[in-house]
């Protein structure tokens, strides 16, 4: 259950990271409200997951989900480059996340 909470926290991190682009420096109300809500939700869920998961593992997985999700959003929705080297680097992050999950005692 704590891993599912951590996954949701990571997905909310993607929402707020992408949302930052649309707030235009927090000058637009609706995107700013969504971004700030996602930030709060992400941190709250991370805190709940940390009740049972090791800090280093949970934090690395949380930021990894946010990083990979944000990059994928950028490639798919914002026409950011998807070169081979960039995709290999994303793959290494995914492997690192999977490794941390598999090696976690919980």
From TrEMBL:
Keyword Nucleotide-binding: no
Keywords: Cell membrane, Membrane, Transmembrane, Transmembrane helix, Transport
InterPro entries: EmrE-like, Small_drug/metabolite_transptr, Small_multidrug_res
Main location, first listed in the record: membrane
Protein topology in the membrane: Multi-pass membrane protein
GO cellular component terms, semicolon-separated: plasma membrane
Transmembrane portions of the chain: 33-52, 59-78, 84-103
Record's subcellular location: Cell membrane
Any one GO molecular-function label of the UniProt entry: transmembrane transporter activity
Recorded family membership: Belongs to the drug/metabolite transporter (DMT) superfamily. Small multidrug resistance (SMR) (TC 2.A.7.1) family. Gdx/SugE subfamily.
Protein name: Guanidinium exporter
Species name: Massilia eburnea
Lineage of the organism: Bacteria, Pseudomonadati, Pseudomonadota, Betaproteobacteria, Burkholderiales
């Amino acid at each position: 259950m704590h891993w599912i909470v951590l996954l949701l926290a990571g997905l909310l991190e993607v929402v707020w990271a992408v949302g930052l682009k649309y707030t235009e420096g927090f000058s637009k109300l609706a995107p700013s409200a969504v971004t700030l809500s996602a930030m709060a939700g992400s941190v709250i869920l991370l805190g709940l997951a940390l009740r049972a998961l090791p800090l280093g593992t949970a934090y690395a997985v949380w930021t990894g989900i946010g990083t990979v999700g944000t990059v994928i959003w950028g490639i798919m929705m914002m026409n950011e480059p998807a070169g081979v080297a960039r995709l290999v680097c994303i793959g290494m992050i995914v492997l690192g996340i999977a490794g941390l999950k598999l090696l976690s005692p919980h």
